[in-house]
Amino acid sequence: MSDKSIADTLGDDAQARARRQLEAPRPRPRLLRADRRQLLLQPTYLEDLISEDHRARLVWTFVESLDLGAFLDNVESVEGRAGRPAIDPAVLITMWLYATSVGVGSAREIERLIREHDAYRWIAGGLEISHRTLSGFRVDDAKRLDDLLVQCVTVFLLEGLMDLEDVAQDGMRVRASAGAASFRRAETLAECEESAREIVEQLKDDLEHDDGTLSERQKGARKRAAREKLERVQQAAREIEDVKKAKKKSDRHKARASTTDPQARVMHMPDGGFRPAYNAQFATDVASQVVVGVDVTQSGSDMAQMVPMAERVREVTGRLPTNWLVDGGYPAHEAINEMERIGCTVFAPPPVPKDSSRDRYAPREDDSKAVATWRERMGEEAAKARYKLRAQCECVNARARQCALKELTVRGIDKVRSVLIWFALAHNMLRLQKLREAAC
Predict the structure, then answer these.
(1) With contact defined as beta carbons under 8 Å apart, do 259 and 236 qualify?
(2) 303 contacts 182 by C-beta, under 8 angstroms
(3) Can you give the pLDDT at residue 4?
(4) CA 100 to CA 219: how far, in whole Å?
(5) Would you state the pLDDT for residue 53?
(6) Which regions of 265-374 does DSSP assign to beta strands (E)?
(7) Residues 193, 233: contact at Cβ < 8 Å?
């Protein structure tokens, strides 16, 4: 509004007041500012950190239902003797199952989350848990994890939530914790081993004459790092022989092994590239989508994986399924013969003949009885319809990718298998909840 307009509409006094308001500087805003130097006293009741229906509570309830006697047998700290008490295995199992179910696969990340995230703080229950404790517990003993998987699957069978009529097997190649540049041929590995030995000896001499700048912990860490590097190089040299056996005779001179993860193998990945990986195998009950078998191999092919997985399923469930569903990468003739012998009917598509005039479902002259029956069976509409059920196991692989199984953080085939079992346990735990809710 202009001065003239003010004069026309207001009196002399009002006009003066309005002019003063227009000319006066704008007052400073009043703000509530953060004061991070103040001391807060915030008593926290851990039970109130998460809601009653939070997943962490579900995991804890599931773990409480398991028999953890095998884990307690290995605890060296006992009443009546000196020593620091061990962390309750139930807490560590719950921590890893919950972390796996939400896609966290790093012990260091869990250690951070225990300090910052309410769900992890609730599970820890005030305990301080280091990443070393977490990582060691995760891969310490695959046999005990196998026992947990057996217990978990038994619950499904006892409650009638799984019939084990149809089991589908599928594999997924998981990136190993090894760089492509870490692979060396036999001649180079011999040089690396000699160099690693020299480093160990030189480090030993340096630490003996240390001027006191390094702590005992730092010395121990350096010794351990040098020793482990030498051990990995030596293991890689031994693995070279196995790599050679898997190659054609003309290509054996190209055999290489990794000095980072000697048991990893270069595999053809889904995106078409070649990278260090492990071949993770899962057997899934089709109707319930429950993982009933876990295995891992160093082979990039699925061709010879049916029979070993069938034995895994028998160990977990106590029996074999009626039907075994696999894709076209599995049915080697020897495997079909063996699966028929042990009582599993194989449903897999026969390969497309190179001769387009030949019927892919017609038996061949050199087929065994089991193979001939398999070919004829897959030509029937009922068999084709049953084979389509195999697609339901794809959700397990997709779930595994979500649960931090895109790239491994552990090295060695035994540790990799332990990680896969943790995933199977977490997956089955969530399936148990869903199936129980559906049954109500």
Answers:
(1) yes
(2) no
(3) 54
(4) 34
(5) 92
(6) 265-268, 274-285, 290-297, 323-325, 345-347
(7) yes
Q: Which residues contact 208 (CB under 8 A, 6 or more apart)?
A: none
Architecture of the CATH domain 162-177+274-421:
2-Layer Sandwich (3.30)
Q: What is the pTM of this model?
A: 0.86
Count of Cβ atoms closer than 10 Å to residue 65 Cβ: 11
Question: CA 216, 221, 224: angle at the middle one, nearest 5?
Answer: 125
Encoded tokens for 325: 């569903």
Pairing of strands 265-268, 166-175: unpaired
Taking the chain (440 residues) in runs of 10, the rounded mean pLDDT of each run is 52 70 75 86 86 94 93 83 87 95 93 95 93 92 91 94 93 90 85 80 73 74 82 84 81 85 90 91 93 93 91 94 92 92 93 86 90 93 93 84 85 93 95 89
Domain edges within the chain: 46-76+86-139, 162-177+274-421, 180-258
Tokens of 282: 């899962």
> With left for phi above 0 and alpha for psi between -120 and 50, is residue 103 left, alpha or beta?
left
